[in-house]
Amino acid sequence: QVQLVESGGGLVQAGGSLRLSCAASGLTFGSYAMGWFRQAPGKEREFVAAIRESGDSTGYSGSVKGRFTISRDNAKNTVYLQMNSLKPEDTAVYYCAAGVGSMWKYDYWGQGTQVTVSS
């Protein structure tokens, strides 16, 4: 079965950096667009970033553009989210997702990893 396993979350001070990873198994990774989403307490899940199957196209939400970078290594079946200049409002559970044929529709989701940014 398909599994998406996130890692790399933790506690960091404002202005710091974290790198999230999402390891995929049970699917043909290079055939899937990958995305990162987040959900803060009491809020709906929101889009953060996405990357096309080959990695040649990316998209970001306005709140993270210029601070976060999504990338992927198809040889390792892994997608990354480099997060720099973190702010307390970036605190959330971060989820990766896989979708076939689109960066905007997702079929599989991971369990999430907690990111907490202290002020």
Description of the structure:
- 0% of the residues lie in helices and 53% in strands.
- It contains no helices and eleven strands.
- The protein has strands at residues 3-7, 10-13, 18-25, 32-39, 46-51, 58-60, 68-73, 78-83, 92-100, 108-109, 113-118.
- The protein starts with a strand and ends with a strand.
- The mean pLDDT is 97.
Written as H for each helix and E for each strand, in order along the chain, the element string is EEEEEEEEEEE
Chain-averaged pLDDT: 97
Radius of gyration: 13 Å
**Beta-strand content bin:** over 45%
Overall shape: it is: globular
Helix coverage percent? under 10%
Largest sheet: 7 strands, mixed
Low-confidence stretches: none
Measured distance between first and last alpha carbons: 40 Å
Report the count of strand segments: 11
Give the structural class: mainly beta
Provide a count of the helices.
0
